[in-house]
Amino acid sequence: MIKTSVQADDIFKHKTGCLILLCPEKNPAGILKKIDDQLNGVITDAFTAKRFEGKLNQTLLQGVGRAMGADAVLVVGLGKTKDITEEQIRQAAGTAAKLAEKSKFQTLSFYLPGGDAGKVSKSHKGKSGDRVAGALAEGAHLALYHFDNYKSVDEENPVNRIQKIVFLAESKAKVNAMQKAVQQAEILAEAVVDTRNLMHHPSNTATPQFLADAAKKIARLPKVTCKVLEKKDMEKLKMGSLLGVARGSHEPPKFIILEYMGGKKNQAPVVIVGKGVTFDTGGISLKPGANMDEMKYDMSGGAVALGVLQAAAGLKLPVNVVGLVPATENMPGGSAIKPGDILTASSGKTIEVLNTDAEGRLILADALVYAQRYKPRALIDLATLTGAVIMALGHVASAVIGTDPALIKKLIQSGTATGERLWELPLYEEYEKAVKSDIADLKNITGPGVGAGTATAAAFLRAFVEDAPWAHLDIAGTAWTSNEKPYVPKGGSGFGVRLLIDYLKTL
C-alpha cells in the first residue's frame, strides 16, 4: 500500500506535490475562499467562466508558484451540498488521485474539512468528519490500483506512481480520530486490492490451488483458520455436483473453508459462499472464442469471499464469518460431463445437466449444502452466474434474490452506502417449477420460452438452501468492467467486499 499519514499542518505552508481540496456546487467558502484569495481569485474566476462549477468529479488543477508550500492545488467537485454522501466523497477522491498521478505528481495531500461535509451516511456511529476521512482514503487507495505483475520494467521511462498521501486535519485535536478512520479504510482497501489481484492473475497462475494458498495466507491473521478439502474429501462428502464440473480438468478441485471467529463462541456465523471457477470454457457446451479470456474472472465470487474474511479479520469485527469457496476449472476434457448426464449433489438431489456452461450453480449447490452445518444466521452467495443479469441491469448494479426480506433489505442498504448497488429480483414459484426435470430432481437450465435466466438460476440454488436466511448476489455484470470509473480501474472490481463488510458492521 502507498505510504500514508494524518497530520495537522499549516495548509498554506504544507509541502506537497499536489494539495487536493473538496468543493461543492457553490462559490468558494471557508478555507477554499482563503486559498482563493491567496491565489488572487483563480478559483472564483473559474466559477465565473464556468470552467469549474463544483459538479461531481469536475476538476480544476492550478499551479501556485510560490504562493503556497504545495506545488499545485487541485480542486475537485462534490456536486450539490444536499446530495453529498460518502460515495460522492469516494468518487471525488478517486478522480483527484488519478488526475494527480497522471499529472506526474508523486506526493499528494487531502485537506479534511471540519464539521459535516454534507449529507454523509448515517448508517454507522461516528462523527461525519471521521467518515469523510475514511471515504477519502478509501477512494484514493482504490483509484490508484495497478496490476503490473506481468509487465517488464522500463528503467529509462518509469511509469509515474503516487508514493505518499497525507491527510491534513483541521486541528491537532482531530488527528487521532481521523487516523483511526484512515487506517480502517486502508485495511478495507487492501482487502479489495488483494481481491482484484486474484481476479487479474491469468488462469495458468490462478488455479484452484492458487486460491487455496491465498486462503492459507489470510489464515495467518488472528482468529482465522483455513481448511482445504481435496478431491478424496469431496468424494467422501458425496459432492457429486462439484466433482462433476471438475472432471474435465487436469487441475484438481479444492473446497476452501476459511473461518473468522471474532464474535462469541455460541454466535451463529454469517456464511459467505463464493463461486470459484478459475477458468470457464463452458465445458462440452463450449463458449464462443470472443472474449473468452475474461473467463478467468469466473472465480470473482470466490475471490470476494476471501477478501471479506481478510477485511473482517483485519478490522477485528465482533462477528463470526465463514467463507466457502468451491474452486475448479470447467474444461472440455475427455472425462468432462456431457449434456444429458445426471449428477448427484451431496444433499442427495439429482441434477440433469442440460448445458455444461451452467456450471456455477452446480458447484454452488454442494457448497450451499455444506454451509448448512454451520446453522448460519445468514447465508450469502456471490457468483458471476448469468449473462441474463447484464441484460437486466447492465454493469451498474448486481441482482439480489433470496428468501429473507430483512437480509435483502440490509444488503441493499449496504450496497447504497458503499456504491456497490443491488437490485432485488423476484423468486416466484413459477421459476422453481421451471428447474424441475422430467428424469431427475432438477435440471441446470430451463427450457425454451421461460426466460428470466437470473431468477431461474437462483431458483435452482434455492433447492439446496433449506431453511437458512439466504441471499444470492449475481455479480456477473459488476465483477469486472471495461470502462474506468472514479475509483474502479478497468478489469476486476472487487465488487462485494465493501458491501458485505458494511453489512457485517450493521449486525
Structure in words:
- With 507 residues, the protein is α/β, with parallel strands linked by helices.
- The protein folds into two domains: 3-173, Leucine Aminopeptidase, subunit E, domain 1 (3-Layer(aba) Sandwich); 193-506, Aminopeptidase (3-Layer(aba) Sandwich), CATH 3.40.630.
- Helix content is 34%, strand content 20%.
- The protein contains 15 helices and 20 strands.
- The strands form four sheets. Strands 7, 8, 9, 10, 11, 14, 15, 16 and 18 form a nine-stranded mixed β-sheet that branches. A six-stranded mixed β-sheet has the order 1-6-5-2-4-3, with helices on both faces. The chain has a three-stranded mixed β-sheet with strand order 12-13-17.
- The longest helix is centred in the middle third of the chain and has 26 residues, at 175-200.
- The protein starts with a strand and ends with a helix.
